[in-house]
Write a structure and sequence with these properties.
By secondary structure, the protein is mainly α. The chain has 3 helices and no strands. 93% of the residues lie in helices and 0% in strands. The longest helix is centred in the middle third of the chain and has 138 residues, at 39-176.
């Protein structure tokens, strides 16, 4: 395989070779084929020699700078290609990573949904237990309140019945007691007090 430097030298040589034939053709055409006493050969020879000298000087003067310029340009293009290859490899790695993550994304989302569902079920169970405990507490409090109210109402009713019974007994006693009964009661009371 030819190196870039050899290709450049071959191209430059080919350019000069074609240029010589082109220039020689122009020189022969401009002379018109006239021979003025040996004039065309000397003039044309000088022109051809001038051209060859100029071409040789240009070739030797421009060979290294042009070669270096083209070599630097080729190296720059190769560096850019290498950099682009690296970027392409990085992009392919990122795409592969994204594809892998996309493939696992569905499994991850299902795991997350399962976790949230479990947390929701746990929260629901906790709320139900707390509500049940609160309902039992309210039921117990209501039962105690009913018992207290029932005791209070029973005591009030007993007191009212007792007061009415005493009032009725007094009324009965007032109606049924005679003066003799009162004297007898007073005597019995005094006997008890005096004996004691």
């Amino acid at each position: 395989m030819k190196t870039p430097k050899r290709i450049f030298h071959f191209t430059l040589f080919l350019f000069f070779f074609i240029s010589i034939f082109f220039y020689a053709g122009i020189v022969f055409a401009s002379s018109g084929g006239e021979h003025h006493g040996g004039g065309w050969a000397a003039t044309d020879t000088y022109r051809v020699l001038n051209f060859f000298v100029l071409a040789g000087v240009l070739f030797f003067l421009l060979r290294k700078p042009v070669s270096q310029f083209l070599g630097d340009r080729i190296k720059g293009i190769q560096d850019q290609l290498n950099e682009l290859d690296e970027k392409k490899a990085d992009a392919e790695k990122k795409i592969a990573e994204c594809n892998r993550r996309l493939a696992t994304l569905e499994a991850e989302s299902e795991k997350i949904i399962a976790i949230y569902q479990k947390q929701g079920e746990d929260a629901r169970q906790k709320i139900l237990k707390e509500a049940e405990a609160a309902a039992l507490k309210l039921e117990e409090q209501a039962r105690r309140n009913i018992e207290q109210e029932f005791k209070k109402a029973r005591l009030e009713l007993e007191a009212e019945i007792f007061e009415k019974a005493i009032a009725m007994a007094e009324d009965k006693l007032k109606k049924n007691i005679t003066a003799q009964d009162q004297d007898k009661l007073v005597g019995e009371y005094l006997d008890k007090v005096v004996i004691k």
